[in-house]
Amino acid sequence: MTEILALIPARGGSKGIPRKNIRNFAGHPLIAWSIAAGLQAKSVSRVIVSTDDEEIASVAREYGAGAPFLRPSELAEDRTTDLPVFEHALKWLEDIEGYRPDIVIQLRPTSPIRPRDCIDSAVKILQEHPDADCVRGVVPAGQNPYKMWRFNGYDKPMDPLIDVDGIKEPYNAPRQILPPAYWQTGHIDAIRTTAISRKGSLTGNVIYPLVIDSRYTVDIDTLADWAKYETLVYQGGLDMVTPDNRLRRAMPKEIKLVIFDFDGVFTDNRVWTGQDGKETVASYRSDSGRLGELREKGIDVMILSSEPNPVVEARAKKMGVDAIHGIGWQDKGRVMQEVIEKKNVEAENVVFVGNDINDLPCFEVAGWSVAVADAYPEVIQAADFVLSKAGGHGAVRELCEIILKKLQENK
Prior knowledge:
- It is a single chain.
- The chain is globular.
- With 411 residues, it is an alpha/beta fold.
- The strands form five sheets. It has a six-stranded mixed β-sheet with strand order 4-1-5-9-6-10, sandwiched between helices.
- It is 30% helix and 18% strand.
- The mean pLDDT is 91.
- The termini are far apart.
- Strand 7 and strand 8 form a beta hairpin.
């Protein structure tokens, strides 16, 4: 039987995003996404993390990976390459445990969004080609390298970066006649351990491709990348590996009822209290117009809120929407179930939009659960879809537009 080790390198001294490997990414520590990929792959025998940091090791163990050693600090510096890290791990495992895998899989934490079959597909390619030292994940290149230049200084002429046999001046040629180019990603390397031990290389010289859908292209280096790719997790509609292995449901083909929480959805969750004790809130005026369009399309709309303040009823009346408010925190899911039964609609045709912990029971009832962009992390993690707009800042209107667009497409 082929012994396959998934190895995740994760040092503690990240400069660009401090402590990034255990920073929360879409509801889980970043490293948890790569651990999940290893654990959920059918072909992988064992998953371990190579780190110099005890806290990272602890988080890795919590998510099901092994962390049997701490990497020496000299192998966790900014300029440390991958090869000595893998050589160290394989030597430690052989010397201390007598463990010698046939194939080692590299899973970089900074590429957390992976297709579900990513690892098993790479292993299959490696096993089907005896000449292969490695299988590396690649995507179609976003920029054509044949139109790139070697820069020699501001006061010197440039040189073409790459020449192409049979094509004069490839930098002036149509891209359609240029050779296809692919960009290596951090999703996966499946490597025969003999390439490391005998060739002193992390890939060897015979490298086969695993072509990955470019929608999965992720490489997190900055906080801007972080926010961008969290949005991809929530809104990209990708069939990806997740730490809880939960498949986010798609929008129902038929929607009969949309139920909204109020505070933190129609409002920004803030409240102004006057000296007389009266409370006021702010909501997004443009929400009401699109709600009316939903109703015109035969979709019922209502508000379900724990807030006892009569402002809920007043705002709902202004928008022409039914509302039930003042519901106890523990009763929201039960009341929603009663509403659905009374309206005689199937739960699978119901959408619920929320932002707070007490909305989670409603998520379990609804056919499609939606969170506003600034919802609590537990709510975002549980949602099937996360809006790009925050509560009180266009979230309701955004959802209406998404549903209306879908209805138009289905005509």
